[in-house]
Amino acid sequence: MSKFSRIACSIAAASLALGLSACGSSDGTSATDSGSPLLQHIEEGNVTLGVKFDQPGLGLRQPDGSMSGLEVDISTYVVNHIAQANGWDEPTISWREGPAAQRETLIQNAEVDMMTATYSINKSRTESVNFGGPYLLTHQALLVQESNSDIKGLEDLDGKILCSTAGSAPAQRVKDQMPGVQLQEYDTNSSCIEALRQGNIDAITTDATIIGGYAAQSPGTFKVIPLEKDGAPFAEEYYGIGLKKGDEDSTSAINAALQAMYDDGSFDKFVQENLDGVEGVYQATPGDLSFLEK
């Protein structure tokens, strides 16, 4: 019987007087719900992971149904590491699309076991879900045509046409700093990409991870320009892995897996393979959420 099963069975045995059911057979092939559904589902051999389906370099569903991207690789690494650390077989993974507006709902409704979908950690979100990580620190950046020599940073955007998705915080940050910027908003990043390709806008702004994925998808067409203000990166975003609120056992297991991913070089390998080593993507400190107090 696995360590996780023994713990779960002990809890169940202690609860029999309250009418709760016991768990697991003597061979340890199953585990009860001990408040850690992610661990339970990994042990049982089937896990559902949320990622983006339309984000090149991060989470992209291919025409044949296969998945690719940095966050696909990180999610796979995490669940497989947890399985190996506990002596379980690597689980079968089912992928579920995680649109930004639905991430908390999918977690709370137990439609996914964990969510890795350009999921920035902030105070408001921590009220609804637990976060493993952060596994990545990124900054806001610009994407311009490869041939563009006019835009080298924030100060060069005055009078330029800047594209971002509707209601985008990154675009508004730039507008606040450079009132002369003309904002062009579209519903999707892909629409901004096409406008940039056609020369209808001058630049796109969002997280370096996101635009780095588009740049890697079209080598020689676009380039990424880091944004700085007063010599420091312009805006920081810490990406985390969302999971059921209060599931501390799974959160700790995720953080241990992320640290192992850093230590064995897998993170750097994933970034290079998926984002072509784009600037503005850095390791973070799994389990350290002190940045929320800044």
UniProtKB/TrEMBL annotation:
Which keywords label this protein?
Signal, Transport
Question: What Pfam families does UniProt report for this protein, alphabetically?
Answer: SBP_bac_3
What Gene3D superfamilies does this protein map onto? Periplasmic binding protein-like II
Q: Which domain of life is it from?
A: Bacteria
Q: May I ask which residue range the UniProt record assigns to the signal sequence? A: 1-24
UniProt-listed SMART domains: PBPb
Q: Name one GO biological process term.
A: amino acid transport
* The name this protein goes by in its record: Glutamate-binding protein
Organism annotation: Corynebacterium riegelii
